[in-house]
């Protein structure tokens, strides 16, 4: 399946969560077996080209893509979690949202020192969550070598923010507008 075929599987919902927003719903891509398998395959190929040794997925849909990629590639998967979900002492980072802050956590022993980590999520918008995940994984001892997303909303600048921070960023598909 081509990337253009995959693009057709992403549902667009106008005026969600507020008027003027075009919500790009990746659940319709995930819900299509052949489409999801193809998306994972395309992303795994890119992660392999980046020299991935560990796949790290950002909660929640980054788990869906990242775990499938890690299994396909035979690599470890590291979940980057929302607060209070891990049963061990954690490394944590607070980061800014449009309105307020949030926190991400990771098990400090989950990333081997110096391992080449590729960060995965379903969508990159402003990049705040992805940048926080990168910093957290670096604190855990990983070398973040790449970031991959199913969807980029380039008008919001998140992928460029990652590149400006020294992390190559790419997505299978981009949708203009937000």
UniProtKB/TrEMBL annotation:
<keyword id="KW-0963">Cytoplasm</keyword>
<dbReference type="GO" id="GO:0016208">
    <property type="term" value="F:AMP binding"/>
</dbReference>
<feature type="domain" description="Phosphoribosyltransferase">
    <location>
        <begin position="30"/>
        <end position="152"/>
    </location>
</feature>
<comment type="function">
    <text>Catalyzes a salvage reaction resulting in the formation of AMP, that is energically less costly than de novo synthesis.</text>
</comment>
<dbReference type="GO" id="GO:0006168">
    <property type="term" value="P:adenine salvage"/>
</dbReference>
<keyword id="KW-0328">Glycosyltransferase</keyword>
<comment type="pathway">
    <text>Purine metabolism; AMP biosynthesis via salvage pathway; AMP from adenine: step 1/1.</text>
</comment>
<comment type="similarity">
    <text>Belongs to the purine/pyrimidine phosphoribosyltransferase family.</text>
</comment>
<dbReference type="InterPro" id="IPR029057">
    <property type="entry name" value="PRTase-like"/>
</dbReference>
<dbReference type="GO" id="GO:0003999">
    <property type="term" value="F:adenine phosphoribosyltransferase activity"/>
</dbReference>
<dbReference type="Pfam" id="PF00156">
    <property type="entry name" value="Pribosyltran"/>
</dbReference>
<keyword id="KW-0660">Purine salvage</keyword>
<protein>
    <recommendedName>
        <fullName>Adenine phosphoribosyltransferase</fullName>
        <ecNumber>2.4.2.7</ecNumber>
    </recommendedName>
</protein>
<dbReference type="GO" id="GO:0044209">
    <property type="term" value="P:AMP salvage"/>
</dbReference>
<dbReference type="InterPro" id="IPR050054">
    <property type="entry name" value="UPRTase/APRTase"/>
</dbReference>
<dbReference type="GO" id="GO:0002055">
    <property type="term" value="F:adenine binding"/>
</dbReference>
<comment type="subunit">
    <text>Homodimer.</text>
</comment>
<dbReference type="InterPro" id="IPR000836">
    <property type="entry name" value="PRTase_dom"/>
</dbReference>
<dbReference type="InterPro" id="IPR005764">
    <property type="entry name" value="Ade_phspho_trans"/>
</dbReference>
<keyword id="KW-0808">Transferase</keyword>
<dbReference type="GO" id="GO:0005737">
    <property type="term" value="C:cytoplasm"/>
</dbReference>
<dbReference type="GO" id="GO:0006166">
    <property type="term" value="P:purine ribonucleoside salvage"/>
</dbReference>
